[in-house]
Design goal:
Length: about 120
């Protein structure tokens, strides 16, 4: 009886570990897909109204546009940090995503502003 109880305990612990290991990937996958990001600037001299398409795959951010490189990460709770670059220009942004939309702030060079995102 003692051996059976130890085996059941070990099996239960392995099952719990497998469920715990699978949960983060499932949570980050909530944000996977194509997103359209609208960028607004708080400074009139900076580009405003720009739209960028990004993709998220297993929590990793990538660009869907050959002219703009994107990298970054989305955490399980939806917190996102991203870097966009095009030629010599570079902007860093952060914010939060939900299952269908998101918003945050960005800064790059002498410019800064806000961004909003919609799932495509």
């Amino acid at each position: 009886m003692g051996h059976t109880r130890k085996s059941l305990f070990a099996t239960g612990m392995l099952l719990l570990a497998a469920i715990s290991a699978a949960t983060p990937a499932a949570a980050t996958a909530t944000f996977d897909g194509a997103w359209n990001v609208q960028i607004a600037s708080s400074n009139g001299a900076c580009n405003s109204g720009t739209s960028v398409s990004i993709g998220i795959n297993n929590g990793q951010v990538a660009s869907n546009n050959a002219m703009v490189a994107a990298s970054g990460r989305v955490a399980d709770a939806g917190n996102i940090s991203v870097t966009l670059s095009s030629g010599m220009k570079r902007a860093v942004g952060s914010g939060r995503l939900t299952a269908t939309s998101g918003s945050g702030t960005w800064r790059g060079g002498l410019c800064s502003g806000t961004w909003t995102a919609q799932r495509m």
